[in-house]
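Note to self: the last two entries modelled the partners one at a time, which told us nothing about the interface. This time every component goes in together.
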Amino acid sequence: MNRFALVFRLPIIVWQGLFFLGPLFFMIVMSFFLVKNYRMEEAFELKNWARMLTRGYVWDSYWYTLGMAGSATLVATLVAFPAAYALAFRVSAEVRRWAIFLLIIPFFTSYLVRTFSWYVILAGSGVINAGLGTVGFGPYTMLNTPFGTVVGYLTLTLPLVVILQTVALANIDQNLVQAARNLGCSPPRTLISVVVPLAKTGLIIAALFCFILSFGDFVAPYYLGGSKPPTLPILIIDTTKSGQQWPRAAVVAVMMMLTLFAIAATAIWLAYRRRIAS
Amino acid sequence: MKDPLVVLSGVVKRFGTFTAVHRLDLEIAQGEFIAIMGPSGCGKTTTLRMIAGLETPSEGEVRISGQVMNDVPVHERDTPLVWQSLALFPFLNARENVEFGLRMRGVDTVERRRRAMEWLERLDIGAFAERSVDTLSGGQRQRVALARSLVTEPRILLLDEPLSALDAHLVIRMQGVLTRLQRELGITFVHVTHSQSEALAMADRIVIMSEGRVVQIGRPREIYRTPGNRFVAEFVGRNNILSGISRGDAIETALGTFPAAGLPAPGRPATLVIAADLVEISQAPRDGAIPCSLISEEFVGATVTLFLEAADGTELKVQVPERALGELNQHAGSRYHLSWPADAGHVLTET
Ligand SMILES: Nc1ncnc2c1ncn2[C@@H]1O[C@H](COP(=O)(O)OP(=O)(O)O)[C@@H](O)[C@H]1O
Ligand SMILES: [Mg+2]
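The predicted structure of the combined assembly is written out below.
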């Protein structure tokens, strides 16, 4: 690498250092600090880690968050796919451009506002229950349930998943799809044997984004899920509020970071692995 | 002709308002090696895709073994196509690519593997079976594509310019592989190409297309020596084309009057075609020879094409063996005399 290459890369290195590695490093360091009389003191003790990792409620929250984010990822992937497929293969390029533009619009409005609008729809006396009531069903409890949490996660992630899947599918070489048909592959089978493997990278990246956004989301589990049990982001907030326990919150944050690193690494390895077992 | 395997009758293909193929009639026999040749955009690929069912004819009928295929979906046709881009599946290795068609037909794993390996070995690429296809060379990928299409033992193989991306020396080798395979298997090959050397070297019959129409069908020698019209005369081989008026047993052109057979009634327009390799060239003046001056030459190895100009500006071409060049000691502007035997001229009655 020559001198200039380093010069050109310097801005990005500085940026990453300032806004990503720096805070991350500080958070890790902070997880070893102690809190005395509501004040944080610099220290290097394993107490926070020992305390948090031995508490049942931390692990309950951990597995619950993982499960909720995983479910949202699964649902988003399956729900988005037919829509993305239609946009990629069944409509003109013109319609596709408009659809992607429309899918970006939700990101212009506040996620919090969009979440609250679900309140009106999902509430015990909300739109859905009113509708079901007229045909003799319900009312069902949807707010303050895991269902509410997943609905919230999907509000955040579904448009993005549809966009990423559409791009992945639209980039497939149509000759390969036709070649499969030419070799005796029926249309439904082509979908599984050729289209999905070809779009694999994009589909996995879309799912990964969905997981990352859901895993770290505070709004949906708090307002629609009723924070019972709390997800990890809620746990972080609760921990900082109770007795200024920033170091213990940092422990949870580091747990989340490590989990996301592991999942992202696995997903990217799967996404870019050339061959798939047949 | 033996029983036709593929029959296209009155086939038309339109894309919107554009007609890519106009009323095409073609019969392809069982076991025949047919080449469809023509300039880029003349409708060769479209024709091939209609046989494979990848395009639906706007009019007319495609029949295979007597059965009307228009409504038979692609995957039920058994008309494998070797793609111009090869279209190998990047997520499968070489062997799995070859196994694909067998897997779709429900052949079990062991049998599938055996037959795929048999074909890979037959095409000398057994050693690369487990390699990812994008680590293979152009020639090896070509062979994987061929094996993938032939492993299901189809009655017909469609090839869409599969050799166009290969180096010249590999093209010759693959031509050998293809002709040998076709002879051994006895199945029908429909080979689309824009290369006349490919078509002339391999095909039993050549179909020449131009702007969506068939302009001539014939054996390679027929196409080469007796082009049916001006387009074929210009497209195939290296021909001198002289327009003129029939005088019964001779044709009157700007360069003189030449005896020729097969002319229309006296006074009617006609065209005389003389292949460049049949023209005789000398430095010394000869009786009835046309005086010309050399403009340029094209050296392609064993033969050299000389481009000359007659007194009235008509351009004439002569092909001579490279070893005969020494005697001519040519340089730009050199003066020569051209003539040809009376039976070398081929007459076109259309102009
Ligand atoms: N799907 C299509 N839509 C519109 N025009 C097409 C399509 N496929 C082919 N064409 C047109 O039909 C003509 C013939 O194409 P093609 O059969 O691919 O030619 P060739 O293989 O002889 O080069 C071309 O002018 C091409 O642009
Ligand atoms: Mg073509």
